[in-house]
């Protein structure tokens, strides 16, 4: 329909990104829009023309299309905390669209902060938790009480609960840091064991790390971590590079 006006949420869903990203594009002029009172609207014909002009940008919006909805264990490297939360929110929205149950494991993240960050990115966290469609677990606490087996058991238990509830897959995201398990060798042991464990379960799992943890002194450590995952994605400001690990 000519001159059809779209809401920010409709455009975000169409481009597979977050409303916050659309607001940022509107404010910067990257995406032309009109303001009706306090609300932004985007003309569909303007959006269509922008997509034609910027076809390479379409690729940057299709990261979730790269993730196969079957057994998968992926490592992500995000440029900052905001990008990490954007990636997790996008990942969870994809899982919900496929009618899968969600699992969020926290290492350095505070569970209440996670709830707030995901909610501001358009996920109905309270409703999802109430319906047992999303569970948020403190994996650092599990590790402290049981060692490596603690977070492994958390992933396994949630996968089994997901199966009992009748969902085909658990879509889960953890958020380790290089120091999450103390000694780096313990982290490698955990990621290797997690990779073996998830391969036997109906789980699509992603382990986002922050780029600020990466320096020239620990580049080899990041390479070792990459080899504990089937795929690796580098994510920054809605752009990404997706790599398949030929060694996995």
Automatic annotation (TrEMBL):
<dbReference type="InterPro" id="IPR009061">
    <property type="entry name" value="DNA-bd_dom_put_sf"/>
</dbReference>
<feature type="domain" description="Helix-turn-helix">
    <location>
        <begin position="5"/>
        <end position="48"/>
    </location>
</feature>
<dbReference type="InterPro" id="IPR025847">
    <property type="entry name" value="MEDS_domain"/>
</dbReference>
<protein>
    <recommendedName>
        <fullName>Helix-turn-helix domain-containing protein</fullName>
    </recommendedName>
</protein>
<feature type="domain" description="MEDS">
    <location>
        <begin position="73"/>
        <end position="229"/>
    </location>
</feature>
<dbReference type="GO" id="GO:0003677">
    <property type="term" value="F:DNA binding"/>
</dbReference>
<dbReference type="InterPro" id="IPR041657">
    <property type="entry name" value="HTH_17"/>
</dbReference>
<dbReference type="Pfam" id="PF12728">
    <property type="entry name" value="HTH_17"/>
</dbReference>
<dbReference type="Pfam" id="PF14417">
    <property type="entry name" value="MEDS"/>
</dbReference>
<dbReference type="InterPro" id="IPR010093">
    <property type="entry name" value="SinI_DNA-bd"/>
</dbReference>
